[in-house]
Amino acid sequence: MSYLIGEKLTGGYGGPDIIKDCTLSVDKGEIAVVVGPNGAGKSTAMKALLGMLKLNGGSVKLDGQDITSMSPQQRVAKGMAFVPQNKNVFVSMTVEENLEMGAFLRRDDITETMEQIYDLFPILKTKRRQVAGELSGGQRQQVAVGRALMTKPTVLMLDEPTAGVSPIVMDELFDRIIEIKRSGIAILMVEQNARQALNIADIGFVLVTGENRFTDSGDALLANEEVRKTFLGG
């Protein structure tokens, strides 16, 4: 069984269901990527896993425990961390203050974790006294991911982590995401750069109108002619 699994998730924001019988899963030390056209329900499915929308059906399990009825805060305390696409840093705080905010639930010494973040993202150590609002888009994303890692999560969920960054910065972020995976964390990522994301994915989910159209390894999806033609531009 996967470490995190949302099974047959159905729900939305009070109106019609946006996701229908949607299943997503990821294991520790894996990267799972969710791709699909705009409006496919990718981010909604991610929020369903975190308990941020009302489910009309389905369940969410973490390490074998049913967490469907838990609040987002309870899920974070259980080891889930989420990096939203927008407004994901405190722009008036320094880099270091942002990272410290990520450790708000912890009561132990955070020094070692902070150093691990700086090892992963060396530019953040250089700019640790700088206000986050002055950073580039790619550097802000590093702060956002670093702050999530300060919780010492077992699951890291990323919503469009490379949105609005250059191809070079995207490649750097993906390299860091692979490093995080190697530490044993389960990574679930919604990504608009589908081809590049599937290149680093252990498992991929292609959503269309809120439903699973394809589920397979990243390599298999890249090799699938229908997936390539319909979702990857040939």
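The above is record 1. Record 2 follows with the same two-line structure.
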Amino acid sequence: MTALTLSTAGAATLRADALVVGVAKSGKGLVVAPGAEAVDKAFDGRLAAVLETLGAAGAEGEATKLPAPAGLKAPVVLAVGLGSAPEDGETYGAETLRRAAGTAARTLNGARKAAFALPFTDPEGAEAIAEGALLGAYAYTAYQESRNGKDAKKPLAEVALLGAKPRDKAFKAAAERALALTEEINRARDLINMPPNDLYPETFAAIVTAAGKEHGLKVQVLDEKALDKGGYGGILGVGKGAVRGPRLVRIAYTHPKAEKTLALVGKGITYDSGGISLKPAGHNETMKCDMSGAAAVFAAVVAAARIGLAVNVTGWLALAENMPSGSATRPGDVLRMYSGKTVEVLNTDAEGRLVLADALTRASEENPDAIVDVATLTGAMVLALGNRTFGIMANDDDYRTAIHEIAEEVGEQSWPMPLPADLRKGMDSPTADIANMGERMGGGLVAGLFLQEFVGEGITWAHLDIAGPAFHEGAPYGYTPKGGTGSAVRTLVKLAERTADGEL
């Protein structure tokens, strides 16, 4: 785990393996960002000119290494691009700093310590840099025993944030928040990246139980017998084809001064083959990530507890494996859900909405102030919004807008989506109360309409479809690694914080 320290040392005097500075584009060419004045002085005021000679342009995602001159304790200077320099009186945005710090941390894999002299003027800026660096330093190597020899490059071991004030309460709180948040995001990433032969409903539940004991959270696990006794037909129906049975996990954080309760519901399909409606070749390889919603909910509850937010946050993880077998649910079967409604299963690969439906009904029974579910729910949402943006649907337009603005604030790309009433008719079933499929066009919206049927009356509800950004298959960028990303955790935690402050 990468360590974080706040340092009052100057950029020229701190001993580290590398010194990170920011550079940006301006109308006059490359400019060195604030915070790196001592470094520029060591280059006789020619740092920008030297970098331009090496081909640096200051673009976001750019990283240029060069040997440090005499006068600096660090042997290497790493210049990271910040994009366009801000206008007079403005500062660099939090997401710009976050991504630059992430790029630097990834570039410095194998280093023991790096000093970050990136520009910030307040605790919020320092927090963004810390978040980016700690997220960028992430690597999943648990199953790479053969690579753990002397030649293996481990993640950056320590991030020293220059210019922060370790004795200032606001800066200290920002650092502690960044550390708690990023450690839980990286925990979610670990779970998403874990192979499904090791992460299945029972083991996932055990991990949550252990975390609950560590952080003083109440955890309740319903196994197959309890689910059967309780009538959770959706979760049981999805898990029927698997050797390893499903689970419903409740993890709760309570605060003595809390006035509101936020319920979070996560889709936790630890492997999705599609069931009898088997996925085609080429679509199975990454389906271990179909529990990303549950991982995000788990991480958000623990992060809220570690930060100490004055709000009650309850997480519901609907866990199952969706497998084909002689005992699996078939297209045409009818399931009786926990709510009492019956659902005709037309496609067993539309399973996420079935497990979420039971969890939404159960969460509604506790009458929280709001419910937010998170799921890698539909390929249709990826077609609509791409691989980096999640969709937001809600039964309250103001709440949907608020979540969209929060996501934008914390650096997660999202977009508000509608719930058109005319699409509901497509799920009418001649056999049951509702079918789990409707019109093909607008499939992501149809899934949201299905979920809305299982939310308790009068409860504010939102649905985040993170199918696009939950798992990144391309090359790493900024603080985003290849594989599990931990999408939506930052949005959920900030949402809980706003709820605690009485803003929602």
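The longest strand covers residues 261-272.
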